[in-house]
């Protein structure tokens, strides 16, 4: 399966979705500002496979919310209810954020893509 990423909302889209024009982008709609309590500010925001120049590689972008959700779940071992509360999102939104984040990380690592963490949502 071939994937690409929406340049506006950073969602991972498969080619079938794009060709069927099924992706309804949130672009233009104001995003709700999510509460992020990141303990450590990260410095390097691009992680890339060794030996592949960045300009020749695909870059998958992870949003700050996605990183925060993954961190709270996997490092802080919080329950999804607690995470949703901390991030001021509904549980279904959190579930979607986690699913998207996992997909992106799995995709980047398994396909040797670079992984970038964006500064904004
Ligand atoms: Zn989009």
Characterise the protein shown here.
The protein is of the alpha+beta class. The protein has a domain at 43-117: Winged helix-like DNA-binding domain superfamily/Winged helix DNA-binding domain (Arc Repressor Mutant, subunit A, Orthogonal Bundle), CATH 1.10.10. The protein is built from four helices and five strands. Strands 3-5-4 form a three-stranded mixed β-sheet. The protein has a two-stranded antiparallel sheet with strand order 1-2. Helix 3 (80-86) packs across helix 4 (91-111). The relative contact order is 0.20. The model has no long low-confidence stretch (mean pLDDT 85). It binds zinc ion (ZN).
The CATH class of the domain at 43-117 is Mainly Alpha
CATH topology of the domain at 43-117: Arc Repressor Mutant, subunit A
Instruction: State the end-to-end CA separation.
Output: 26 Å
User: Structural class of the secondary elements?
Assistant: alpha+beta
Largest sheet: 3 strands, mixed
Strand order within the widest beta sheet: 3-5-4
Radius of gyration: 15 Å
Average of pLDDT:
85
Corresponding CATH architecture of the domain at 43-117 = Orthogonal Bundle
How large is the count of helical segments?
Answer: 4
């Amino acid at each position: 399966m071939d994937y690409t990423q929406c340049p506006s909302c950073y969602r991972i889209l498969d080619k079938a979705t794009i060709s069927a024009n099924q992706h309804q982008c949130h672009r233009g709609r104001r995003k709700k500002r999510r509460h992020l309590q990141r303990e450590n500010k990260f410095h390097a925001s691009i992680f890339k496979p060794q030996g592949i120049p960045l300009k020749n590689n695909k870059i998958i972008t992870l949003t700050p919310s996605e990183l925060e959700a993954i961190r709270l779940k996997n490092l802080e071992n919080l329950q999804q209810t607690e995470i949703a509360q901390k991030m001021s999102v509904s549980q279904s939104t959190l579930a979607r954020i986690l699913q998207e984040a996992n997909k992106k990380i799995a995709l980047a690592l398994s396909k040797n893509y670079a992984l970038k963490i964006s500064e904004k949502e």
